[in-house]
Write a structure and sequence with these properties.
This is Periplasmic protein thiol:disulfide oxidoreductase DsbE:Thioredoxin type domain:Thioredoxin domain 2. It is found in: Cell envelope. The chain is an alpha/beta fold and about 190 residues long. Helices cover about 40% and strands about 15% of the residues. The protein has a single domain, classed as Glutaredoxin. The protein has helices at about 10-35, 85-100, 115-125, 140-145, 170-190, and strands spanning about 55, 65-70, 75-80, 105-110, 130-135, 150-155, 160-165. It has a 5-stranded mixed sheet with strand order 5-4-3-6-7. The protein is elongated, with a radius of gyration of 24 Å.
Length: about 190
């Protein structure tokens, strides 16, 4: 009564369907890893050369003055968009503090979707390089500026136009080779 049983062959399309979730996961993982390790801060910005958006941000509760459109006219300045919950913001903060100590360019901040107490603790711990900080609790101003995520740093010319945008945390090389040359060129044009 023992019949030789032939193994049942599964159709090829069934094998494909079984492997599909693994292929999709692999593609998503590859895209994630590419994004994680691709340090290209040259994302295009439609804001370069345009006037900064009109805004009026209150200060972080318990800290100095807020930030408005008018504050960014009359001199070349940097605007750094940051948050206490942003790990890369911690990476670039020592360089911002060091830059602020040189008095070579005013640095202003836009604190994005943060709790006031957390923002104050962050500044107390890492240093406060900002002349003014506006609290963007809704995130609307960051959207108007075309912010992809934090941190982002903008170079603003004396007429209130965005001259340069750096996406992500900057390091000493990108500060000295990308950001500060734009600042110096604009300051020379302003003084000419």
């Amino acid at each position: 009564m023992s019949k030789d049983r032939q193994p049942v062959r599964k159709p090829r399309w069934l094998r494909f369907i079984v492997a599909l979730p693994a292929m999709v996961f692999g593609a998503i993982a590859a895209a994630f890893l590419w994004g994680l390790f691709n340090n290209d801060d040259g994302l295009p910005s439609t804001m370069i050369g345009r006037d900064i958006p009109a805004f009026d941000l209150p200060p972080i509760e318990g800290r100095g003055k807020g930030l408005t459109t008018a504050d960014l006219r009359g001199e070349v300045s940097l605007v750094n968009v940051w948050a206490s919950w942003c790990v890369p913001c911690r990476v670039e903060m020592p360089l911002l503090v060091e830059l602020a100590q040189t008095d070579s360019v005013p640095i202003h901040g836009i604190n994005l979707k943060d709790k006031p107490a957390a923002a104050r603790r962050f500044l107390a711990e890492l240093g406060d390089p900002y002349d003014r900080i506006g609290a963007d609790s809704s995130g609307r101003t960051a959207i108007d500026w075309g912010v992809y995520g934090v941190p982002e740093t903008f170079v603003i010319d004396a007429k209130g136009r965005i001259a340069y945008k750096h996406v992500g945390p900057f390091n000493r090389r990108s500060l000295e080779e990308d950001i500060l040359p734009v600042v110096r060129r604009l300051q020379q044009e302003q003084n000419a």
